[in-house]
Amino acid sequence: MSRYRLEYAINEKIRFLSHRELMTSLQRSLRRASFPFAYSHGFNQRPKFSFGPPLGVGIAGLREYLDVELVEEIAQEEYLQRLQQQLPLGIEAHRLVLVPPGDAGLGKFINCACYQVLVPDSLGISWDKLLQDLEEGDPWWYERPNDGKVFNMSAGIIKSRFQQDEGDLYLEFLLKIGPGEVPVRGLLDVLSSKANAASLPPFRTTRTGLYRQENNCFISPMGEIEVIFEG
Amino acid sequence: MNLEQVLFEKILPRVGRAARYLGTEWNSVHKDWDAVPVRMAFAFPDLYEVGMSHLGLQILYSLANDREDFLMERVFAPAADMEQELRGAGLPLFSLESHHSLKDFDVIGFTLQYELSFTNIMNMLDLAGIPLRSENRSDNHPLIIAGGPVAFNPEPLAPFIDAFVIGEGDECILEILEAVGEVKGNCPRASRSDLMERLVEIPGIYIPSYYRPEYTGDGRIKEIVPLHPKAPERVQRRVISDLDAAYYPLSPLVPLAEAVHERGMLEVFRGCTRGCRFCQAGMIYRPVRERSPEVLLSQARDIIKNTGFEEVSLVSLSSLDYSCLDRLLPPLSEECRATRTGLSLPSLRVDSFSVETAKGLPGRRTSVTFAPEAGTQRLRDVINKGVTEDDLMDAVGAALEAGWSAIKLYFMVGLPTEEREDLEGIAELVEKVENIGKRYKRGRKRPRVTVSAANFVPKAHTPFQWEGQNSREVLKEKHEFLRPLIKKSRAEYNWHNIEVSFLEACFARGDRRLADVLEGAFLRGCRFDGWTEYFRFPLWMESFQAAGLDPVSYAEKKFSYDEVLPWDIIDSGVSRDFLIREHKQALDGALTQDCRTADCGNCGICTSLGVVPQLVKERK
Ligand code: SF4
Predict the structure, then answer these.
(1) What DSSP string runs through B463-501?
(2) Residues 6+ apart with CB under 8 A from B368
């Protein structure tokens, strides 16, 4: 049994898939590419997949991950290329690596995510001030519509900052995943209402990376140490 | 911003299940719009999840797109939130692949699977900015065509559709698109009148504006008057004679948003000659034409490889009637096991053979469905359902023995000649099924038995076309009588919405005058009438009243044998004499045999359409 980790991107064209729809699409793509899946035992045998934290509907993802168990070791490059030919428009497979034995798995490993939120420049808002208020002022509350659960948005944010790049304005957030996690949809809703932009289309949002934060170090699920929120 | 940009930036972030509108499914075809001379939109008047499970769409989509000079894109009925967004933004309904406005196509083809999708057709035309009625369309508008089983009584839709396609669309879609190409030539649009003149020459095309029905003083149809020299007296259905030679899509679309059925479809055969007398499909798709096991096996391999579907399904009317199961199932099961693909049958015949067969198929087993349809042998003989109580008990026993833990039983209420004993018979059968279930308890859990009762709807082109539907009051009484009886045996009882069945009956045998009702209901806001949560009966009743028509007289109408029927213009190939004979046989409780296993019953199909039943293995 060998576990492989796939790094892939969900681009603008396909960001509206739900997590479940995405899982099905990827599973079928891997089937078409003839990946030799390992199956669970028992009544309802399923291939053994595990996905990184779900991406919200409408949000693009630059580096997303899934683990799949295979019955044998494969030629990674060859299978990556095969897979690339079988993916629906908008999903891109970037890397495929063998997961070393003893790896905790994506669910246990990942504890934070980086998001980039493109904001319109027409609002005449001091975004720096808004973020400062979010991190240091009174809590920003959000009530999730489907179950009425209330979240303190500020508590889910590890870091945030405002950036400007060639005329584009965007906010960057480092958010907790797992304990203390808040819904990204809620953060966007609250932001847009604080910015008096509720009538505008939702802010374009991209998840730019998933990490494990240990002290001040950010490790990607591919095992690389990365520098984020600097420069 | 163009339509696609507005869609992605402003609309999709705000609607539910946005994946329905992306259009980038695996195996979807995206052609260079400007490079293709003839462009058609295949319009499915229901939600994406329903339409994407439909075999006809898959066949026609691939067939048309395989031709370089044609392009076919899809459009489904937009969900309520999408409709609101489009109307709010003043945007037209669009095709999925290129996100072009529907109005830009040369042809829009609706598939008619169910009467209660009619208001969705109106809505889709309206959202596209296309006049609802043919007479108000100009050369600037696309040609609106429609086909599918419901086109066998096209009359309620007649004023809205330019041309109906009667019979198997895969037999004639290319001829239609070729005709459009010819008439269009190098112009941006084909002239409508020239196009109709050309289309009427194609067998199987019914152009409703070429006819005028005349009515008697008491509201019956006097005659259907042809208004055009080329209009045929009757329009004969198109039929494919050899399924092995017919086109079949080996790279079907794989849904992005979750569909009702997500599976590769294997069409084992077309047609069914069991001869259930209420069943329209059993009449209008005759004769039986089987595919050979070799072809099916090779298609299955390709479909699994090209889609990645986790399941393939044998989707014919009663797939276990296939004459060559012994040559198909073993290698197909092996192929499925090797590729970890499930193999399923949508419903089982009521006998233990079916269960034994289904048991051996690879894949997950949840519930098993049997359709005895009626509660007593007498009534089952009336409807020609050749099933006995022993068959059912054997089948149930075999299913439970094989490990299924949920049994679904389908019945029909309100069948012609039905009496109280027949309803009691349903309850007795269910109780016996429950009693068998007791022997298969798992711990303290008994197998679950669910009873679904549909309301009988008389359909055009069947032996029961002359019969009326029970009144709503009677149907309600019958369900109320039946429910406690079934509850006693602890089975679950579900029944179809009576008002929905009532409307279905109005339109299934309705005439052209009902078009006003349809338009009225659409304008009053009716949509998705087949979905109980959207169905608004009072609006329908208002629309009938406004049109000065009595729905009861449509649903409950008994036609006499010599009366002109609204759908007489359509020739399914089954003779009127046969249907009358079958109707009389029904009233006598006499059975008619299946021509696959007995002699020809002279239904008229083979002589009139020049086809013969095609069985891989002779079984007489
Ligand atoms: S004409 Fe005879 S053989 Fe042909 S479908 Fe009808 S009953 Fe069967």
Answers:
(1) TTTTSPPPPHHHHHHHHHHHHHHHHHTT-EEEE--HHHH
(2) B348, B355, B358, B399, B404, B406, B407, B408
Residues B53 and B146 in one domain: yes
- Which residues of chain B make contact with A39, given a CB cutoff of 8 A? 340
Confidence band for A231, pLDDT divided at 50, 70 and 90: low
Can you give the pLDDT at residue B620? 65
Amino acid B617: pLDDT: 87
Question: Domain total for chain A?
Answer: 2
Tokens of B582: 């079958």
Residue with CA nearest ligand 1 atom 7: B601
B205 within 8 A of B164, measured Cβ to Cβ:
yes
Cβ within 8 Å, pair B258-A24: yes
Residue B225 lies in a domain: yes
Q: Note the pLDDT tens digit of each residue in A42-88.
A: 767 789 999 999 999 999 999 999 999 999 999 999 999 999 999 99
Confidence category of residue B1, pLDDT binned at 50, 70, 90: confident
ipTM reported for the complex, 2 dp: 0.92
The answer to whether the peptide bond before residue A202 is cis (omega within 30 degrees of 0) is no
DSSP H/E element including B135: none
Within a domain: B387:
yes
Give the Å distance between the CA of B193 and the centre of ligand 1.
39
Contact state of A201 with B13 under an 8 Å Cβ cutoff: yes
Task: Among A104, A120, A145, give the residue marking a domain's end.
Answer: A104
C-beta atoms of A88 and B19 within 8 A:
no
In a mutational test of the B interface, the residue from A11, A14, A24 whose CB has the highest number of chain B CBs within 10 Å is A24
Question: Is B121's pLDDT higher than 70?
Answer: yes
CATH number at residue B121: 3.40.50
Whether the CA torsion B488, B494, B499, B502 is positive or negative: it is negative
Helix (H) and strand (E) counts in chain B: 21, 19
Is residue A14 predicted with pLDDT exceeding 80? yes
Most A-contacting residue of B12, B48, B311 (CB-CB within 10 A), to test interface: B12
Phi and psi at residue B499, to the nearest 5° = -65, -35
The alpha-carbon gap from B24 to the nearest alpha carbon of chain A, in Å, equals 6
Average pLDDT, chain B: 94
Nearest CA to ligand 1 atom 8: B595
pLDDT band at B219 (very low <50, low <70, confident <90, very high): confident
* Rounded distance between C-alpha atoms, residue B495 and residue B485, angstroms: 14
